[in-house]
Design a protein that fits this description.
The protein is α+β, with helices and mostly antiparallel strands. The chain has helices spanning 5-17, 44-73, 79-104, and strands at 21-26, 33-37, 40-42. Bound molecules: zinc ion. Residues 27, 29-30, 32, 43, 45-46 line the site of zinc ion.
Length: 106
């Protein structure tokens, strides 16, 4: 995916200002120029995108956790209803686990 103006403004410009060195190599993944800082060569755009994605996933996970807490705190007395609710809780936990895994990986 090509760079957006926002990424250039938010990622590339501050890096240049921070004294990082722009190399004449490009990232094979997104085409952004690679940078070197403190002996480390990296693609600032891919790192930025990965952070943004993690932030999004975290937001979804937190919303799911809130719903889960709400359900656990208001379990119905009726056995049939309770069983249904427990089924929902179980599925919700499964979904949350999947999001946690996504956050851990790239
Ligand atoms: Zn990249």
């Amino acid at each position: 995916m090509a760079l957006t103006n926002e990424e250039i403004r938010k990622v590339i410009t501050p890096l240049l200002l921070s004294g990082a060195k722009m190399l004449d190599k490009h990232c094979p993944k997104c085409g952004a120029p690679l940078f070197e800082k403190d002996g480390r060569v990296f693609c600032p755009v891919c790192e930025y995108r990965s952070r943004q994605k993690k932030k999004e996933l975290k937001g979804v996970e937190e919303a799911l956790m809130a719903k889960l807490t709400e359900l656990v705190n208001s379990l119905p007395e009726d056995m049939d209803e309770l069983e249904k609710t427990l089924g929902v809780i179980e599925r919700l936990i499964g979904v949350i686990e999947r999001y946690k895994k996504l956050e851990g990986g790239e």
